[in-house]
Every structure is written in C-alpha cells, then in structure tokens.
Amino acid sequence: MEETETEVEAILERVREGDEQASAELLDYLYPLVRKIVWRRCPVEMSEEDLTQEVFIRIFKTLNQFSGKGRFRHWASRIAVNTCITHLIKCRRRRQELRKSDLPLEQQDILEHTVADERSEAPDRKVASLDLMETLLAFLPPKDRLILEMRELERKSFREIGLLTNLSEVNVRVRALRAKAKLRTYWKELQESEKR
Hints:
With 196 residues, this protein is mostly helical. It has helices at 5-16, 20-41, 48-61, 72-94, 105-112, 123-137, 142-153, 158-165, 169-193. The chain has 2 domains: 1-94, Rna Polymerase Sigma Factor, Chain: A; 97-196, Winged helix-like DNA-binding domain superfamily/Winged helix DNA-binding domain (Arc Repressor Mutant, subunit A, Orthogonal Bundle), CATH 1.10.10.10. It has 9 helices and no strands. The radius of gyration is 20 Å and the shape is elongated.
C-alpha cells in the first residue's frame, strides 16, 4: 500500500493510541522497505527473518521519538540501516584472518582463475563469484561495507548514502574509495595465503 504522508501520520497516531489494526497496517506499509534493507545487509551468520523482526521491534519501541519533521519512511530506513550495522559489527568481531584454505572449493577455484576464463560464464561459477565477493565484503568495517553495497550494488548517490548513514557526502566518497582499496588488498592476501 502506498500511503501519503498524511495517511501515514493518521496510522501513526492510531498506533500510538494502541490500535492493533493500525500497527498491522504500519507493518504492511514498512515491510517491503525494511525487508529490502535487511536482505542487502544481513550478516551471513544471522537469519534475515530474525533481523527483520528486530528492526520492527526497534521501530515500534522508538515510535514516540519520531518527531514528524521528516518523512517517516526515511526515519524507519535509518533505524533499519543502523540495526544492520550493529549486527555487522558484532559478526565482524568474531571473524579472524582471511585465508584461501578456509574458503569453499568453488570460491578457491574462482580465486585461481581470472574472470577472463571462459568457464566463469557457467551459472555455478557466477554463484561462487558472488559468494566470494560476499566473503570479502564481510571483512570490511560495517559502515564501509554498507557504503560500498549502496553505491555499487544499489546505485545510490553519495548524497543519498550520506543521508541514510548520517555521514557527509565527502566522507562517503572517501570511505567508498578506501573500501575498494581494502577489497583489493584482501583479494591479494587470499591469492598469496597459499604461498606462505
């Protein structure tokens, strides 16, 4: 359902008054937005459903903090993004060093053969390539990973990313460049890990 801001305000008022039907309407309204954010940023170690549920719990718990000065969808998006960042940080702390031998065989094979290899067109190799990229992204600091995913995969502008992450546009640009450099470093480390 695509409500106007006035209709959303009416739903929010009913939710604050304890109307369960309004809560269900708000959940239906936000679900596609929250699900999309969680789907792109959910740590591998966590269930997307659990993280989605946690985002909604935080939204409903902090609903009284929404001032109404901005758009509600933007406010809810920031809660979803920040919840994902929190979990990415927790999962990153548990990770150790990156070694080729720790990767599944399909990802090791991708690492050994360049993208120019004609076998890379096979569907199973494309999936393994995506999995390898996800593995490398997981080693980035959560905000850097988030910025890179928004910029490269979702094609968001630096300004849009800045609004969602509460960073300046210049800071977003710098972090994106540094994140790409870190990915190149991780790639080299993986290639050289078997030589040690």
